[in-house]
Structure formats: structure tokens, C-alpha cells
Amino acid sequence: MAGRESGDRHRFLERLRRRLARSPGAAHGPTPLLEGEPPPVDYAGPLDDLTGAFCEAAARLGALVRRASRESLLGVLDEALALAGPGPVALTAEPETAWLEAPLLSRGRQVVRPSDGPLAVARACLGVTGAVAGLARTGTVVVDSSRAGSRLVSLLPPVHLAVLPAAALVPDHGAFLRSLDLTSLPSGLVLISGPSRSSDIELELTLGVHGPGRLMIALLD
Amino acid sequence: MGEFGLEHAPLRERARAALAQPHLRRNLRRATDRFMEARASAFAQLADPDGLRATARALRARTVARLPELLEQFAERLLARGAHVHWAADAASARHYIGEVARRHGVRKAVKSKSMASEEIGLNRYLEELGIQVVETDLGEWIVQLAGETPSHILVPAIHKDRRQIAALFGQVAGSRVPEEPAALAAFARACLRDEFLQADMGISGVNFGVAASGSLVLVTNEGNGRMVTSLPRVHVALMGMERLVADLAELDVLLALLARSATGQALSAYTSIITGPRRPGEADGPEELHVVILDNGRSALLGSDLQEALHCIRCGACLNVCPVYRQIGGHAYGWVYSGPIGAVLTPALLPSAAARELPLASSLCGACWQACPVGIPLHDLLLRLRRRRPPAGMAERLAWRVWVALWGSPRLYRWSLGVVAALAPLTRWQGLSRLPLASRWARGRALPRVPSQGFRHWWRENG
User: Fold this and answer.
1) Alpha-carbon distance B312 to A30, whole Å?
2) Residue whose C-alpha is closest to residue B218's, from A213, A114, A185
3) Which of B22, B48, B328, B401 has the fewest CB atoms within 10 Å, measured from its CB?
4) Whole-angstrom distance, CA of residue B262 vs CA of residue B374
């Protein structure tokens, strides 16, 4: 359903056009205008090993990275559960995560689905989501909320476990962004680089101010 | 704005009040030094930082030159995604629209993530007058809101407060003593604000970038409050200055590579959210309604003027951290929302106020701001252009300049004037300049240069 528009678009834009028709002066010569698409950002240093670079960068941000196969993923889940302590677990129904419901139930954990609502997700001690991409240079995981069916599972619980297939690793945010189809973007994409952080009190770093204070990434081979 | 308000006291007095707070200056120095160091190491990760800045400058110039068509495309994409769009020509129009949305939804509580545009339009006070409780959720913003103050730094709004003062503020909220350790203070804030997020009916955010080609909103935060505000309440209102656009995701690539690096020295902030429309069928959460308010509020007056480049700003704060004036007096002394060199340009450009026209004087014109700016805005030049727009000088100053022009416009009188100065050379050793009756204000903090008794031309005739 299309949204509503208010205010006077025509007058708003007409004023801009009228102003722009005058030519601005510039002391550093006329400001050059970019032609064509900007080239990809060039970073220093080679990037031969996406996996190694990703693990190193994510660890530097304070994320816990564990390499796992589909079988050993349960071991990583157990580690995340131990880190999170007792309580329900919020779980999305993505290809990497949906099958974890049975193992969680067999471990005596209550499983919360996004459809149980924000208050239920907020009570979970751990949120488990998939990830659609990993950015090697920055150790970033990308969570797609349309695919996850939720914006909150990766946000409200104090610990977030992201299950990232190694095949989804790309060099950097530019490679990821430039690969997206603009006509089919999900309602929410979030590039997550380490746990929630703040330095607002005397510049001292504190983790988990609003988002998860612990981020664990299971890198699936 | 209290004692630091633009209209409350002249710039000179506001600066003096700031300089009289030793802990403010100490904290500012620590914060700005740390950001500058972090920025330097983050830029070292780029193969060609100067080339990237040049690209970014040309990119911003193109965006601003194409604003009408890009805004139109942005709005069409938003509407097609089911978002509502409001064109706000001024602050009153934006406030009124947001107030109406709140009224229609019976909003009693709104949570906000950091938005300078909302401070610019005085949104909090307006909504509070409508009986709506507005809660700032960025940790630093919440602290200054509890204290009834305004931010003193774009990224660390409560940089002027120490842990003892913050614990006292939180103690008033808790009704009991709160420990002073930053981790404990942050945990207390998390618990309080978590309840606010879950109860709020409306979330209000700013926008770091709007993507014209997809109608996406890009929000960058470290704490995650921006994600909360745009995910939990059933209505999300995003307030966007009209120039905060990129054409597409390739342009976003370039600006994201520069924004966090310039701001905090991070490669990327903890959370970069790309929001395209409200909640869709099959999604369990996210706002049911998304409203995007596109704000002009004086910005269009910069288009086609010699200050147009001020609209290239991406609000990273790098120019604040390097500015020798900002590093001493901090954000409050600038008297309005935007501080530092960019504030000294934007404030007089956006506010029709005589007090705002003083701000371009608060600069040494050293150009450090221009060198730090990730999109290469020649801020020192813009400051000079604004100085030229100030009302003409007083009679005495105009007379002095006219005499100078007359003397140095003619070779004979020029030589004569040098002879006079050389003859008066012994006088320049006198340090009583500020005791002169007419020049005392100008002379405060200045000293005359020592003039040798023999001028260069004279020396050249004898030794050349």
C-alpha cells in the first residue's frame, strides 16, 4: 500500500531548483562534480584469506568467533548457552537456525519465536539468528530482518549468536552493498560490527548499553 | 540553552564561561586527542585516503547539485514502500506534522535516538507542550536531558560531566544511591531505558543517509538505541535534513568508509541499519507506520550561494576535534545545536540572528578543519566569506583602513611610512598596548611585533 504525502512537494523542490540555477562561487576553484559511479574503496594491505581476516577483525571488536561444521555447531550453541546463563532462547526460522529448535528443547530451554512478541523476545537470555553476509575487513555480520522475520532477535537479548555460512564472506561493506538489488531490499538490513558499545561516560568503553553486550559468531564451513 | 544560549550572552562571555571550567577543558582535550589519534590509524587502513576524500567531495558536490531530482526519486520510492513523506519547508511545519502524527496515534511516550535536526527545530519542547513524554536514549543524550542541559560534543554529548555527577543524576532517577563505575552506570541506564523502549508508542530518529534509488534510510549507531527506536514502537518518525542523500549504494559505500573513520576512528560503527519501508507482511516486528520528514528550514538559502558546500557535511565531527578554538571552549559556547567550525558556518546561515553572525570570528582560520573534513569542505574559506558579510566596521576602523590604503597605495608614502615606523621602533618594546584607551578591547591578548630600527630596504641599500 502506497504511503501518503503531505506538505507542498512542488513548492519545496521549485525553491531548490531556483536557488541552484544561480551559480555558486568557490575559492578552491569550481567544485568538481563526480562523473559516473564512484570506484570501490581501495584498502591498504592485501586480502588473500577472507576467513582469516574476518576472524581476526571480529575478534578485535570483542566478538567471539567459532569455526564450526553443521555437526559441531551444537557445541558452539552450548558455549553460547553457558555464556548467556539460564532463560528462554529467541530463535529465528532461517535455513541456518530453524533446525536448532529441537536441540534447544532437548536441552530444557524454552524457545521464543519472533511472533511471540517483543516482550517475550526481550526476556530471552540469548538470541540466535542467521546472517546473509560477513564482511572480512571489518569482522561485520549482516542480518536481514525480512529473512529472519524479526528485527529484535539480534537486538534485545543480552547475548547474540549469529550463524554465518563461510560462503557468505565478502571483502568489505562496499562489495556487499554494491551486490544488492535495489528493487528488492528487505525492510531491515543491519551491519553488526562487534557488541553494542558506548564511551559516553568519561570515554570509558562499556559494552552492551542497549544492544547485546556479547556477540558470538559461528562461522559455518 | 541556559547560560550558554546564543541570545543570552555575547560569544566572548560564553567562551569565558567555558574557559573557567577546568574539568571541561581537560575532558575535551582527552576526548578530542583520542578521536584524532583513532582517526589517524583508521585512515591508515585506506590505500589512498586523499584520493578517497577527493572522490567523496566530488560525490557530495554532485548530490547537492542534483538535490531536486534525487529528493523526488527518494520520496517516490518511500511512498511506493508504504512510508509517508512530509515536505517541511521550515521548523514549524516539521514540528506540527510530527505532533499531528503523535496525536492521531494517541502517543503518550516517544523515544528518540540522536538527531541534531530535531534539536534544530526544538522538537522535544514542542512535543512536551503537547503532553508527550520525550525520552532521549543515547546514553550521553539521556544524561544531558536528565541534567536539563544540551550536548557539548557531537559524539560525546556529556563530555563535560564526570562519573560522580552522572551517578548523582542517576541517583535521583533511582531514588537511591547508584555506584559510580561507568559499567554500573551504563547497566543502570540500560535497564531504565529498556523499559522506555518497550513502553513507547513512537520512535523518533535522525537519518545519516537517505538512499534515493531505493528510499532506504541509513542509521549509524554504536549503542543500538537507533535500532531500538526504529524497531520497537509502532510508529517511527525519521527527521532528515534535505541534503543527507546519496544516489545509490555505491555512493553509500564511499561515505560509510569515511563517516565512522572520521567520527570515532572506527572502520564501521557497531550498527549500520539500512531500513527500507515499514514492517512487511510476515514480519513479527518493526513499526507499522514509517513517516519521513524532509526538512529544509533555511538550507535551501545556501544553494547557489558561496556557502553551498556547507551542505556537503556528513556530520562526523572531525572538524570539531581538530579545531583549536573548539578544543578550548567546547560545544556549549557556540550557543546553538551545531558547534565547531561547521557550527560557526551553519548557525549564521540557518539562524537569522545578529548573535549568530559573531560565530565566524571564533576561528583562527588555520584550516585544520578543512584538512580533517572527509568530504573536503573548505571551512576556513566559508568562515571568511561569512566574516565579509558582517555589518561594516565602525568609523575608527574604517578610517584606519583608509589611511593604510592611502599610504601603502603609493611607493613614496609607503617608504615614508616605513621610515616613521623604524623611527618609532623603540616604542614597540613598550608592552602597554592594552592600556591605550581606544584599542584596549582589540589589544587584549595581542602584543606589538618588535620592529628593528633599520628597515630591509635601508639594509639592502647599504649591504645589497
Assistant:
1) 14
2) A185
3) B22
4) 7
| Pairing assessment for the beta strands A133-135 and A169-170 based on DSSP bridges | parallel
| pTM of the full structure | 0.92
Half-sphere exposure at residue B293, Cβ-oriented, CA atoms within 13 angstroms: 29
Q: What is the pLDDT of residues B333-390, one digit of tens each?
A: 999 999 999 999 999 989 878 888 889 998 999 999 999 999 999 999 999 999 988 7
Angle between helix axes B249-263 and B49-65 (nearest 10 degrees) is: 120
Q: Residue B97: its chain A contacts at CB < 8 A?
A: 6-7
ipTM over 0.85: yes
Question: What is the dihedral sign for C-alpha B323, B324, B329, B334?
Answer: negative
Within B389-438, residue ranges assigned H as helices are: 395-408, 411-423
Query: At A23, is the secondary structure helix, strand, or coil?
Result: coil
Share above pLDDT 90 across residues of chain A, in percent, rounded to a whole number: 89
Please calculate the CA angle A155-A80-A213 and round it to the nearest 5 degrees: 40
Q: Where are the alpha helices (DSSP H) in B269-367?
A: 318-322, 326-329, 340-350
Measured between CB atoms, does B280 come within 8 Å of chain A? yes
Quote the distance between the C-alpha of residue A201 and its chain's center: 25
- Return phi, psi of residue B154, to 5°: -60, -35
Pairing label, strands A126-130, B109-112: unpaired
Which residues of chain A lie closer than 8 angstroms to B214, CB-CB? 182-183, 185
Identify which of A28, A151, A201 has the shortest CB distance to residue B166. A201
